[in-house]
Amino acid sequence: MSRQTTAILIERHGPPEVLVERTIPLGDPGPGQVHLEVAATGVNFADLLMRAGLYGTVPPMPYSPGFEVVGTVQGIGPGVTDWAPGDRAVGLIRHGGYARDLIVATPNLFRYPASLSAPEAASVPVAFLTAWVALFESARLRDGETVLVLNAAGGVGTAAVQLCRWRNIRVIGTAGSESKRQAVVDRLGAAACFDSAGDWGAEVARLVGPRGVDVALDAVGGRATPMCRSLLAPLGRLVFYGMSDAMPARKKNWIAMIRAWLRTGRIHPLDLIEPNASVAGIHLLHLHAKESLLRPALEQIYQAVTAGALTPLVDRVFSLDRAGAIEAHRYLHDRRVFGKVVLA
Predict the structure, then answer these.
(1) Which CATH fold topology does 4-124+312-343 show?
(2) Residue-range domain boundaries for the chain
(3) Confidence of residue 255 (pLDDT cuts 50, 70, 90)
(4) pLDDT per residue over 206-233, tens digit each?
(5) Strand runs labelled E in 168-321
């Protein structure tokens, strides 16, 4: 009889309660694959968009969300020589992470420091790699520049602020509550953090003056995008990697989506000439096959974590089952998180 495991699946779109727990076939690892017993999986805002039917690239339903997992190798397929049963590993996958067991291709496996717990290790890959690619690959961040990070208290936001401070880059953030704003400054080292629901554009402009900001990371969209563009210095770069403004509630809202889309606006190439501005987009899943980019980046990130220069920020750990996944999604929808949410 074939082996089986349990997984949290999306069988239809809707609020968090549509998530279901099922027994599914597991199979055996094939050439270049391992069987990974999952100890923890990171929860990302993209998981919420998948569940609501707002994410672009997804497999046919039913499927399990989850891009990043941590676990122990239980078995290896033919030709695997660099992993052995008992090894601890991080897996960066396209989907399927809300499961107790996975079959993972070895190019998608990474080692992580023994000093980290499974939830800590699982909180790193998506957040820090997204921030890394945005800052160092797309924006080509340089010494002496100033960075604006929207949603600085979220998973990617806290990672981006930490990466900037690691490189001694001045960083300014936005966040939704006073406690989060204070933590972004006091715990993470941002120069300032303004209310994301207020007139933060004017406050940033007063702080930086006519010089502007060199890089803006925007995962919000809506009115935030033109505000970011207006703050860019000459040769400034706007990096866009999400539109949380399109999903302010726990389920799809067409009015909110249309409003966010219209407020974000369209950017014509000619509009970028006079301000000497650049606009880029980041979608980490579509870099999934670029091992030559992601592996050295993640290795450097984990080395910095080991050295104490970067810190995985696990806000809450929920159980890796249906009830835990539902509560985790609700927690992210309510914008209560500082750092990352993990299932374990």
Answers:
(1) Quinone Oxidoreductase; Chain A, domain 1 (3.90.180)
(2) 4-124+312-343, 130-285
(3) low
(4) 999 999 999 999 998 888 888 999 999 9
(5) 170-175, 192-195, 213-218, 232-240, 278-281, 314-318
